[in-house]
Please model this.
Amino acid sequence: MTDVPETEPVYTQFKIGQDLGVASFPLDTERVRQYNLLFGNTGPVKEGDTVPPFMLAMLCHRFLATIPKRRPGSIHVQQHSSFLGLAPAGALLMVHGRVGEMWEKKGRNWIVFQLEGCLENGQIVYRGRTTSILGG
Model:
């Protein structure tokens, strides 16, 4: 479920500090088990088991991969991740996005998206920054 509007991002439509909305990702045991299988871990996952931290990062950055849509010619330049806590299987991860920085360099439009992942109880478990050049 998401409260993020689908947009075709045009650089001039963004503003520093702009709220991009919130997306929710259930950390259900089946989703965690499927993720673990990618790395050869075939064991069962029970409610309350620790969700692999990189799975949190993947889901938080998925927020930007699908919403807002990226225009042709956009380039993912870099990302930074900070893991701030553990999340249990069975929890709900809520990802909030906003625009952190913007600048133009050599005729290209650069933008930094800030992401924060938290659990339903408000505990922040992930913070990330993604730098992109927006195409179009």
Summary: The longest strand covers residues 92-105. The two ends are 28 Å apart (CA to CA). The chain has one domain: 13-134.
